[in-house]
Amino acid sequence: MAEPLLEVRDLRVHFPTDDGLVKAVDGISFTLAAGETLGVVGESGSGKSVSFLTVMGLITKNQARIQGEIVFQGQDLLKLPPEEMRNVRGAKISMIFQDPMTSLHPYYKVGTQIAEAIRTHQKVSKREAREQAVEMLRRVGIPRPDERADQYPHEFSGGMRQRAMIAMALSLNPDLLIADEPTTALDVTVQAQILDLIDRLKQEFNASVVIITHDLGVVAEHCDHIQVMYAGKIVEAGGRRDIYYGAHHPYTWGLLSSIPRLAEEEAHERLNPIRGLPPSLIFVPPGCAFHPRCPHAFDRCRTEVPALLPANGHHASACHLALEDKERIFQETVMVRR
Amino acid sequence: MGRYLIRRALFLVLVLFIVSLVTFLIFVKLPAADPARRAVGRATTPENVENARRAFGLDKPIYVQYARFAKGLIPWPGLFLNEDVYYSYSNFVPVKEEIFRRLPVTVALAVGASIIWVLIGIPIGIVSAVRRRSIADRAAMVFALFGVSAPVFWLAYLFLYLFWFKLDWAPSSGIPIGVSVLEAVAQGRFIMPWLVLALAFAAFYARMVRGNLIETMGEDYIRTARAKGLSERRVIYRHGLRAALTPVVTMFGLDLAGLLGGVFITETVFNLPGIGQYAVRSIFLNDFPSVMGVTIFGAFFIALGTLLVDVAYAFLDPRVRYT
Amino acid sequence: MSVQVNERPDEAPVEERRPLVRIRGVRKLFPITRGIIFQKHIGDVHAVDGVDLDIYPGETVGLVGETGCGKSTLARVVMRLYDATEGTIEFDGRDITDLKGRELRLLRRDMQMIFQDPFASLNPRKTIGSIIGEPFRLHHTVPRNRIKAEVQQLMELVGLNPEHYNRYPHEFSGGQRQRIGVARSLALRPKLIVCDEPVSALDVSIQAQILNLLEDLQEEFNLTYLFIAHDLAVVKHVSDRVAVMYLGKIVEMAAGATLYRNPKHPYTGALLSAVPIADPDLAAQKKRIILEGDVPSPIDPPSGCRFHPRCPNAQFPKCRDEEPFLEPHHPGQVAACHFPLEDRAVIETTDAEPVH
What we know:
The complex is a heterotrimer.
Chain A: E1 6-17, E2 20-32, E3 37-41, H1 48-55, E4 65-72, E5 75-76, H2 82-88, E6 93-96, H3 100-103, H4 110-121, H5 126-139, H6 145-148, H7 158-170, E7 176-180, H8 188-205, E8 208-213, H9 216-222, E9 225-230, E10 233-239, H10 240-246, H11 250-258, H12 299-303, E11 309-312, E12 315-317, H13 323-334
Parallel strand pairs in A: 3-8, 3-9, 6-7, 7-8
Antiparallel strand pairs in A: 1-2, 1-4, 4-5, 9-10, 10-12, 11-12
Helix pairs in contact in A: 4-5, 4-7, 5-7, 7-8, 11-13
Chain B: H1 2-29, H2 35-40, H3 46-55, H4 62-71, H5 95-130, H6 135-149, H7 152-166, H8 181-186, H9 191-217, H10 220-227, H11 232-260, H12 264-270, H13 275-284, H14 288-316
Chain C: H1 2-5, E1 21-34, E2 40-55, E3 60-64, H2 71-78, E4 86-91, E5 94-95, H3 101-107, E6 111-114, H4 128-139, H5 147-157, H6 174-186, E7 192-196, H7 204-221, E8 224-229, H8 232-238, E9 241-246, E10 249-255, H9 256-261, H10 266-274, H11 280-285, H12 318-321, E11 327-328, E12 334-335
Parallel strand pairs in C: 3-8, 3-9, 6-7, 7-8
Antiparallel strand pairs in C: 1-2, 1-4, 4-5, 9-10, 10-12, 11-12
Helix pairs in contact in C: 4-5, 4-6, 5-6, 6-7
């Protein structure tokens, strides 16, 4: 059994603020194998972005109280001194972000920015770095990469900018690529192009990918394993089929029931939204954080925090309901809509 | 870009025109002593006054008078601030000559102070922004508050009192006759004026740099830079500062251009024979052509400075393109 | 042609039902100028470039497309927030194309808009009671002493707590702010509400709440909606008919189910193919139509069929030289294409009969 690429153990990230302690990530544990594409799904405030920003070392002990372990290729990243973490960041683990317009520096040419990433981690001359940058632009499908490398970000279209960011992230052949809402700011046809590009490059560069998104469709089409996060915790984790055809957590059911389905027969079918509002991360509800909004909550849910327990193999959920009940309710509420 | 420059150049002429017109009208409306009388001095016979009046063109109707001044607006050698019109009522020297004679003093003052305020203000702003809420930051902002609030003349007298009168560290201000500007600089006669002038600007720039840098460091591209694994130093200087300083550069150009038109208070308090001192004196003497000349000179510099700064911006920020 | 095409499926024949909104030949061009002192007009942004559309009372027409397609501009032209460069707009039987001044303001009682950004579209300095009550004050439809009661009634209607009358926008969440926007638009009981991306900025679970709210209100108040979004699934869900726009023109229009099963225009096919489906098996069945390149700029639209540079089906020279017009296909469906897609081009359905 191969060692996992990334293993996160009981990670907690708490931000002290004037209003109180924001428990953005509150005890998550998961593993990521080499060659896997993991989808992390959640709404705003779920902690999905914060967890991976912490993995990258972009959220540090100066800003938040961090506990737990982040073991990457056998090393606990949280125990690494900053200089060594910087060697990992950008070279072994790369990240791309949501808005490619604001994520690239407006004053520097695109080629220069990519070359900068290369020269930070490799001892190469400026010319060599630029050549590598041009080659990366070509590999992500940007036509006339030699000319484009000398242009500024505002001269690129939205889709091309995201490709350039991907080029920059992959330029040092990282083992893990984290994509934080990579397509939210793009048009839908461009979105499809970018996601396909990520799939293709994952093979070519032999990397693992994490896609963080709120879009259940994206995750269904591009991810092998899926984690659903709510209020700083992982509430469900499993393979693709487990989640879409046999989810075990009421929040997942709620998400699946509340999205309009392209395949539905009638217009104006009633959506089944999750009632209520997302919880405060300062005053998190006791017991199961989802219980105030859960139509199936009972006494135990209000007092005892459910642990993320596997039902079979890799499919785990953090819910006190019995397995038979979970399966039944899923059939009744979610599958019925198909 | 060419089109843009032409448009701006035309605009510059328009600005000079408006400034001169407004200044002229103010003077026309002011109940002041008759300049012809003043010019004539002791020998105030009706004919002398009348002659003086004719010499200064004061007998002509207002629009003709203005037209004579307007001719001096065109920034062309020979025409600009021409001698026949721009001729001081009070000391009988062509305005142009007086301005150019005094220019080196103002330049020395402005340039020297600007170097100091940049060297002090910007680093303080950077340290403040990078170490937000630390003691250094708080101290810096107190300094900034003081510098921005303290009136220049108050500071000037304070400095004079402390450093010259009491402590005898600095030479007396002012430039004695016969000493050239360079010599005066070498003698340290400009040090106090530089510091006084620089303090307010340094404070202002520190605040501006701090604000800009804090805002810039919150931008997404800074997060990307860190995600690439760059050292924090490189992130701050090559990514953050590069963007944060662009508005500071433009501000600097404007401030310097404005000062070249005359540093009024500092020159007056320290008795430095620059354009500012000349302007102040002319105002109190109601010496209209001189005031007009200095105003136009100053306006020209400021308008030119604005133009240069805007053009510079296009080089600093590749997103800006002028058509 | 347009008469037959806009016939609503399964409804009474068109002669008996007059459209609430009738748009003919509308174009909206934004001029581009250049010059030293006097600006010379050197070109235009063809934001909307020839649109015919009928919206019947009580229905929801969805408008979908990507950046630069003109959907938002079209909505604003319908609302008379912009003046149309060409064409006519009829509302409730009346020509409103050139209305100005007082008459235009009176028109506003009948048509209202809900905006995309719940953060930016509310004045942060006003209480929500004041915001929602503003239409009453502007149009004098309710006596001053009754305004608060009316506003609170509206707040309850949209799911807000009436006691929060004196709170400010920043004290509310995104979804709640959008409810405030809905309440405001409902105040004068308009006939038409234009919804410009009303749920795009909201979380998924909140989106569903707002969409349900809009449906409920439509039933209760017999509203007509023009619903604009870039999310095809959302648009299809709320709309009776969907119009797909590309570079300022409507390229296809049909009932949602028809559009989904049998898209005729290749662009519609590409959109459908690109929308991620939250169902792995169904997603695997989808036929891929991936477009090359980026969404083009409306400043210099391509000749002939505007889609020809990116169209996987394009055949030359016809597609480059001749502009296609909207032609009928399945009942209630029109598409503008010389070589339309076959049935079931994107999704293979397993059902026995397609829905008409």
